[in-house]
Hints:
Layout: H1 8-12, E1 22-27, H2 31-47, E2 55-60, H3 66-74, E3 81-89, H4 95-113, E4 118-125, H5 128-134, E5 135-137, E6 140-141, H6 142-155
Parallel strand pairs: 1-2, 1-3, 3-4
Antiparallel strand pairs: 5-6
Amino acid sequence: MSTILKTAEDATNVPDASNMCFGIVVAEWNPEITNALLEGCVCTLEKYGAIPENIHVKKVPGSFELVYGARQLTRNDGYDAIIILGSVIRGETPHFDYICEGVTYGIARLNTTQDIPVIFGLLTTENLQQARERAGGKLGNKGSECAVVAIKMAKF
């Protein structure tokens, strides 16, 4: 769901994150988009009380590597939730489909085999404009949405 389609009531149900620790794995590919997602994510975590020292950001080369990065962070007992942030924009080859499917499957598997929630923040868009609209544009910021989901799932 788009951030702008959520109600104001949704924000009131976010637990206090002041005692929580978050790992964020962000892809370096499509940096205009992933940096905007990261900024939205970190700002939202802090808005709900997360201490900056308890927000650990790790970068990986591309979206496919998000799964490995998230898996490595699940091995650290100190995280309450892990957030992955990436952007895959459709091109002229089937590469888009393979990356999207692989990351989706990998993160789903981590969520069924690990004790730490891994939040799926991978934008899968047809073009750069759609990605911009979801990374702080007219459709909100998926990174911010992922931060709220991470706080709620950490409290779960």
